[in-house]
Design a protein that fits this description.
174 residues; two-stranded parallel sheet; 5 helices; 18% strand; elongated; 17623_t:CDS:1
Length: 174
Amino acid sequence: MFACNGILFNHESPRRGRTFVTRKISRAVAEISLGKKECLWLGNINAKRDWGHARDYIEGMWLMLQQDSPDDFVLATGETHTVKEYVDKAFAVIGKTISWEGEGEELVGRETDTGIIRVRVDPKYFRPTEVDLLLGDPTKANNVLNWKRKVDFDSLVKEMVLADIEGARVNSDN
């Protein structure tokens, strides 16, 4: 049996489930941009994740299956970004800058041009077994498979926000 093991770090796209933090953020930013929502509630915004695009990871899986012999590979970007950074990038897609005030559960993200609070922290969204840092090392996949991600973090966030804006527009037309 030809069996490969792919350890895939967070792979995101507009098809990601709506309850995952990346989609939760992109959906909320889309709804805020269309005036359908005022505030996004999150848990640990300091958690660091290794987020890549699902399209790149699919290519990596395909490359694993093209090898002469099966092996194990890690597919990851090798870089981390905080949830807070994801939020900042997502709001930048709609032309908004977020200023952060306070600490811990009192932290809020305020739209700089209007002063409206757009992001709040709620302890109910903290995970009981939170992992603060998830970071993968794709060196073997880079060297053996010649696999490298093509979609950078900024492009990933932009694609997800724009897809959710389009989806929110379509849903409001129905």
